[in-house]
Amino acid sequence: MVETENVASIPWRPYTPAIAAPPPDQDRACSIRISAHDFQRLGLIAVKKNSTRQKLLKQAVAEFLATMAQDYACACLRDRPGACDKDCGEQA
Description:
Blueprint: H1 36-48, H2 53-72
C-alpha cells in the first residue's frame, strides 16, 4: 500500500492499455439477454441443426442486416465496410 505522503515521489508513467483493440477484420463481441425459455429453444434448434447458439445468432443477425440494407438502400448498411457515400437521404 502506498502512503499518501509518498505519492509525489512515484514516477509518472504514460498510460498504455493492457489489451489492444482487435484488428478490424476480427469478430467483435456483443451480448444479448433472452428469456430462459428462448435460450432453451435456441439450444434445442442448435442441437437439431448440429450447430451452436452462437452460430445461429450470427446467422440471424446477418440475415437481419441484409434485409435492413435492402429496406434502407444505404451503402453504409451493405456488406462492404467503408462503402458509405453519405447519400442515405431522409430514410429513417
